[in-house]
């Protein structure tokens, strides 16, 4: 059966819409980085990221036109000022590509799993392969330059062991000592430190270039949240004599000239919040110590409230596009009368 005879499902419409907004935003950030990058080792990763985002956006638009659906507004070259002074160091540009390629692998995997129609499965499979290639390239460059953020090491296990005591799952009693972290818990704590370090840098850059006091205040709050979460996660690792990941020389410049539209910056923070929420949910599900599960749930609530504040700002300024929705059957019935 031809694809044109099969309508897109609600899941396929939603992933197409989300993917379009994600890539149309990302391409504007990378467009600026591509214009400013000077390091010849980092430049190929930036250029590849830009080319991938362009190809993805082209494929999304083809489907919108084929299905006779309106193309979302998304983001355009009007949302970035290429003539502004550089806001990010080249090392942060590489870190940004690494972070966004990880986010891309997660989102495209989810989109592929939700796709039914053959062309949609092929699209998201191709998108996934593209961002995986980008991640491999950016990782190789970071390792070669000594910029890859290494996560903690532990000794190799010498034998296979079974859990014999239910106390292995405990951690809430302040009167008893916690068991030592296992490798799964260490990996999630480390990953969440790393993503929050990226969040600190982004919010710092957005805060110093935002024009409205409202957006500046929002970015300042996001920076404080990220720094607080880094502190909490690092303290848990250090309590077991495990070194927390230390960021390399990732920084922003001292430029205060507006680079990105406030609509783009607010949407970017919404994306970061969504990714962080997903990371914490995965960490809570995988962690076997009850105190860690509770901590992730508590911090997830904080991120959720922060994201809601951001959504309110975007709605008030008419920056937030509405996702495709099912028709209101009750309202349609009333209109018919």
TrEMBL record:
This one is known as DUF3231 family protein
Protein's organism: Bacillus salacetis
Give the highest taxon in the source lineage. Answer: Bacteria
Tell me the Pfam families matching this sequence. DUF3231 (PF11553)
């Amino acid at each position: 059966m031809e694809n044109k005879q099969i309508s897109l499902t609600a899941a396929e419409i939603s992933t197409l819409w989300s993917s379009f907004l994600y890539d149309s935003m990302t391409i504007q950030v990378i467009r600026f980085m591509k214009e400013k990058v000077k390091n010849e080792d980092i430049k190929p990763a930036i250029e590849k990221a830009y080319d991938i985002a362009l190809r993805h956006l082209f494929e999304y638009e083809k489907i919108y036109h084929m299905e006779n659906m309106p193309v979302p507004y998304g983001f355009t070259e009007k949302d970035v000022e290429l003539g502004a002074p550089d806001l990010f160091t080249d090392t942060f540009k590489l870190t940004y590509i690494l972070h966004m390629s990880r986010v891309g692998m997660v989102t495209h995997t989810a989109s592929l799993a939700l796709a039914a129609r053959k062309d949609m499965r092929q699209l998201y499979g191709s998108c996934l392969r593209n961002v995986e290639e980008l991640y491999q390239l950016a990782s190789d460059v970071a390792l070669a330059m000594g910029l890859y953020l290494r996560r903690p090491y532990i000794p190799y296990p010498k034998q296979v062991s079974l859990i014999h005591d239910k106390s292995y799952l405990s951690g809430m009693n302040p009167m008893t000592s916690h068991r030592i972290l296992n490798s799964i818990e260490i990996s999630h704590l480390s990953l969440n430190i790393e993503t929050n370090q990226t969040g600190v840098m982004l919010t710092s850059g957005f805060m110093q270039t935002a024009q409205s006091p409202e957006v500046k205040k929002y970015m300042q709050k996001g920076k404080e949240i990220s720094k607080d979460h880094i502190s909490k996660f690092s303290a848990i690792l250090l309590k077991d004599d495990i070194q927390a990941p230390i960021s390399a020389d990732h920084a922003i410049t001292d430029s205060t000239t507006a680079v990105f539209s406030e609509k783009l910056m607010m949407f970017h923070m919404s994306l970061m919040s969504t990714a962080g929420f997903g990371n914490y949910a995965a960490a809570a599900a995988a962690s076997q110590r009850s105190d860690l599960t509770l901590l992730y749930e508590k911090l997830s609530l904080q991120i959720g409230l922060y994201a809601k504040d951001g959504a309110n700002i975007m709605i008030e300024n008419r920056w937030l596009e509405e996702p495709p929705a099912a028709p209101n059957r009750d309202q349609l019935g009333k209109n018919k009368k």
